[in-house]
Amino acid sequence: MARWRRGPHGRASEVGAVLPRYRPSRAASTIAALFAVGLVAGFTVAETADHSAVPHASVIRGATAPHPAHNLVASPPPTTSTTSDPVAPVVPPPSVTSRVVAPAAPAPCTPGDLSITTVTATSSYQPGVAIDITTELEAIGSPCQLTPVESGAYSCGASVIVNGPSGSQVWPMADQGEQCAQPAAGVLQPGYGQNVTVAWNEQYFDPSAGTVAQVPPGQYQAFGTWTWSAGSGQTPYTVTAASSAFDIE
Q1: Which residues of the chain have pLDDT under 70?
Q2: Which SS3 state, helix, strand or coil, does residue 56 take?
Q3: Is the dihedral of CA 109, 111, 115, 120 positive or negative?
Q4: In a domain? residue 88
Q5: What pTM value is reported for the model?
Q6: CA 243 – CA 35 distance, rounded (Å)
Q7: Hey, which residues does 249 pair with through a beta bridge?
Q8: Around Cβ 22, how many Cβ atoms within 10 Å?
Q9: Do residues 124 and 247 lie in contact, with contact meaning Cβ atoms separated by under 8 Å?
Q10: Has residue 31 been placed in a domain?
Q11: Does residue 157 contact residue 150 with C-beta atoms inside 8 Å?
């Protein structure tokens, strides 16, 4: 290949030599580059606009676009006419007045409603020893009303006396009043009752000496007497119960 040489006057030194390649100027290269950048940028903007117009997530195939909001007209819900049978007025039930009826008071106790006993602590006593005597009244039938009545020589609803070997009363003495333990009034339920206990010191009034002395040895017996109401206008009931005989040695 022949080389390109310039002579003193810029002419070719050789005939038939290959002409040098065209070298564009710097300004032409710059314009061409800017034009290419412009084409690329325009293509990118167009593609971006095309893809951003409808996002992929919002595209629904076969869907119908909704009507504009100003074209939607809200319709009121349909009214349903309901026909019902007439309701009968509520009539309150007639008022009921409850009344608590107090149970009737039990009838007065009769001798058949009660068990009356009189006992001593033991059957034999040494001289000078106090003797405890108990008389008891207990309900054995239906509940009944006991209303003690003061009566007898000692004006008491329950009283106790002691008779000696001759059968005469030795206690209380003629001039000695018995201490009265008046029973309480109330309704007696079956199995319940009242009792009175007295203590005798084995003293009596000796009419021959005219003084108070120790009773002689022998067999003695106690008696308990109860008196209670039989009802309005009725004669009171009086029941006496004797103890077993006991000895004073």
Answers
A1: 1-89, 91-98, 100, 175, 177-179
A2: helix
A3: positive
A4: no
A5: 0.59
A6: 152
A7: none
A8: 5
A9: yes
A10: no
A11: yes
Rg (CA), the chain: 70
Task: Give dist(CA 98, CA 59) in Å, integer.
Answer: 81
What 3-state DSSP class applies to 54? coil
Contact of 149 with 228, CB cutoff 8 Å? yes
Q: Is residue 100 part of a domain?
A: no
CATH number of the domain encompassing residue 243: 2.60.40.2360
Question: Tokens 């009539």 map to which residue?
Answer: 91
Residue 38 host element (H or E):
helix 26-53
Question: Considering the domain boundaries, does residue 146 fall inside one?
Answer: yes
Residue listed under structure tokens 């030599």: 17
The DSSP bridge partners found for residue 42 are none
Q: Are 18 and 1 in contact (CB under 8 A)?
A: yes
Rounded to an integer, what distance in angstroms lies between the CA atom of residue 156 and that of residue 136? 15
Buried-state track 48-86, b at ≥16 Cβ within 10 A, e below 16: eeeeeeeeeeeeeeeeeeeeeeeeeeeeeeeeeeeeeee
pLDDT of residue 123: 97
Q: Rounded distance, CA 103 to CA 187, Å?
A: 13
DSSP string, 133-164: EEEEEEE-SS-EEE-B--BTTTTBSEEEEEE-
Tell me which residue range forms the domain holding 135.
111-248
CB 154 within 8 Å of CB 226: no
Question: Among 216, 185, 213, 202, which residue's Cα sits nearest to residue 120?
Answer: 202
- Show the 3-state SS of 167-207: CCEEECCCCCCCCCCCCCCEEECCCCEEEEEEEECCEEEEC
Domains in the chain: how many in total?
1
Pairing of strands 124-125, 246-248: parallel
Q: What tokens appear for 40 in the block?
A: 């690329």
